[in-house]
Amino acid sequence: MLFKRFYLIIGLVFSSASAQYITTDETRTAVELIEDVLINSGCANISNVSASGGFFASGEKSWGYFNATGTSFPFEEGIVLSTGKIVNTQGPNSFISDDGGGMGWTGDNDLNQALGLNNTFNATVLEFDFIPLGNQISFDYIFSSEQYLTNPNPNQCSFTDGFVFLLKEVPSQSNYENLAVIPNTTIPVKVNTVRGTGTICPAANATYFDAFNGTEHPTNFNGQTKVLTAKADIIPGQKYHIKLVIADEGNYRYDSAIFLKGSSFSTGVNLGDDKTFVNQNPVCPSESITLNATTTGVLNYQWFFNDNPIPGETDSTLTLNPPYNVNQNGTYSVELTFSPTCISTSEIDLDFATALTVDQTSYTFCDTDAAQDGITTVTLSDIIPTLFLNLPSNLQMNFYSSPTSTVPLSNSFLLTTPFQQTIYAKISNSSCYNPIAVTLNINTFNAIINDETATICNNISTTLTADSGFQSYTWNTGETTPSINVTTAGTYTVLIENTNGCTKTKTFTVTNSEIATIENIVITGFDENTSAEILVSGNGIYEFSIDGVNYQNSQIFTNLTGLVYTAFVKNGCGIVPKDFYLVQIPKFFTPNGDNINDIWYIKGIRPMTPNARSIVSIFDRYGKLLTLFPAFGNGWDGTYNGQQMFADDYWYVIELGDGRTAKGHFSLLR
Edge-to-edge strands of the sheet including 162-169? Predict the structure, then answer.
């Protein structure tokens, strides 16, 4: 609940200044600062005013008046309390202000007790008694400090000065209440409890931090909070004492200041807490609400909506009844006239939650995972537009695993129950609505769809055919038939939909191609170590075989033991064959005249081109050349100079015309 300031029917008018920096004035008395600047109305009976602080040898004070008219500072005028000279609070922010060293300027015991400190220095105090007419007080302030460093050392992150706004009844209660706290908490406002991001120091309650300042700023401080409001419930007609204190902590270095907004000290009425979507407590659709401003001594009441008078609403209460609409969201205020010189305005912000109409609560999705097990990830935000017919933009929707769960599900929600699961939709920024059960149904596409490759042979069109038996087909060419004809190479996709409405995409990779040309067959090795590599040319992806049945991607075939083979090379354009021949070297021969294995010769040589220079040389174990003959010749009959050679091992050297050579031995058996 916020207050507007009291104001005098006849007030002072201050002239605007054109300077970009605040100015300070130390000539005003403490009474003038409280009565004419901070309160500036007849709505509180003020007494027992006093101020204390640093009185410097040069005559400057640590407390006084400031004027910010014409600058960017949020307050036009007010009171400034500092831990140094207030003249040094004036901008620009060009030097570090750290006044008050070595002058015996002490701290304050009440501040120490309120903040749990024992090492404060340079305390500036402004205090007074007052008797309010309303049941709540409030005033606006800004805390500024040189300790808001933009480039601090790690050990400077804990540096902070302290200040308090202390309130108690008179005669004195046992303890003061500190009003200078972070809203809706009991945490005192200090440098290390309100700080923004952007430095090595940790941010704290950054919502309430204004900015780190450059040189050109209306004040000579490195940073400050946003405008904050100190407030407290009070008893009309009861005397209170308020003590405003600021002090350095630890030592006199790095001054701080409190700026109190002029005319902001209000003693209005408490209309209750704001009921807004931001606070997650709007007025519910079926709820009536009564705002009660009844206060002793009020002569007249007038209620307002967004600063406009509500016709006929001049009672002490304002009752609002359903049905509501979004045009009623806003600020409701009441103007209380206590006397011709005291008019107080109090206000409350109200948002009205809309009665929601449920539309759809069951949703069907397709399993997009490879497993097709009925467990998939669903984007829950896709549900929100159709869940209600009239969901306002200021209501925040989240989904939960159960009606009582307080942990929202991730927007990318992975189901934990296959095929069907119930989750719960809840409005997270209002307690007006019950959870809504939402059913998630998961359909699957169980058929396996494999991608394919295809070729266009010699620029002749080819047909791409998707898997059959499905509901619909949508090609990236725009066609909707199961098969299409294509005449150019490229990537073609078809979206296949089954009867459940789920889809899979099949991709055809189409390349230009032609039948292969076998350029050569390179044969390596002899006997059981022989391999053949089929070398081809042509535009295409080819498969290779040496039996016409079993094909492979590799061009190389190993462990060949036959003599005559046919190489086959195929693709979508056709098959091309080519014969090739291998060589086998006998391990022994038996030249005994029975016409069985009487001649030692190279098997497989004979089909080779006869004019290719292929020579076989035979040696005995001593290296003596016994014979030399063409590899495609008749071979060796086991004689030398007409004499039969002894049974023994003999050595050969083979030099084939295709570049292969071989050395080894064989046996002559008798």
Answer: 44-52, 120-132, 240-249, 162-169, 177-178
Helix and strand totals (H; E) in the chain: 3, 46
What is the enclosing helix (H) or strand (E) of 23?
Answer: strand 23-25
Peptide bond into 323 cis (omega under 30): yes
Q: What is the pLDDT of residues 126-174, one digit of tens each?
A: 999 999 888 889 999 999 999 999 999 998 998 899 899 999 999 876 6
**Listed residue (148, 143, 123, 145) closest to 63, CA to CA:** 123
Q: Is the peptide bond before 171 cis (omega within 30 degrees of 0)?
A: yes
Rounded CA gap, 360 and 355, in Å? 16
With H, G, I as helix, E, B as strand and everything else as coil, classify residue 440. strand
d(CA 14, CA 23): 13
The residues near 481 (Cβ < 8 Å, ≥ 6 apart) are: 473
DSSP 307-342: TEE-TT--SSEEEE-S---GGG-EEEEEEEEEETTE
Could you tell me whether strands 2-3 and 420-427 are parallel, antiparallel, or unpaired per DSSP bridges?
A: unpaired
pLDDT value for 15: 33
Best CA proximity match to 328, nearest among 295, 346, 306: 306
How far CA 253 is from CA of 61, 72, 120, 156, 356, in Å, comes to 17, 27, 11, 12, 58
For residue 654, what are the contacts with CB-CB under 8 A and spacing of at least 6?
Answer: 585, 602, 614, 615, 616, 617, 631, 660, 661, 662, 663
Backbone torsions φ then ψ of 495, nearest 5 degrees: -90, 115
Strand order in the sheet with 436-443: 362-366, 436-443, 420-427, 397-400
Residue type, 534: I
Residue 433 contacts residue 426 (beta carbons within 8 Å): yes
In the numeric block, the tokens 């808001």 are attached to: 148
Instruction: Concatenate the DSSP letters of all residues of 579-612 into one string.
Output: EEE--B--SEE--SSSSSS-SB--BT-TTS-TTS
**What are the pLDDT digits (tens) for 408-463?**
999 999 999 999 999 999 998 888 999 999 999 999 999 999 999 988 988 889 99
Q: What angle is formed at CA 270 by the lines to CA 267 and CA 275, rounded to 5 degrees?
A: 140
Cβ–Cβ < 8 Å for 50, 180: no
Secondary structure of the chain: what % helix, strand, coil (to 5)? 5, 45, 50
- Counting every residue written for the chain, the total comes to 670
Of 325, 326, 345, which Cα lies nearest the Cα of 336? 345
One-letter identity of residue 470: F
CB 616, CB 631: distance < 8 Å: yes
Residue for token pair 């408490």: 270
Q: What is the pTM of this model?
A: 0.57
Pairwise CA distance, residues 121 & 116, whole Å? 14
Least confident of 249-253, 486-490, 605-609: 605-609
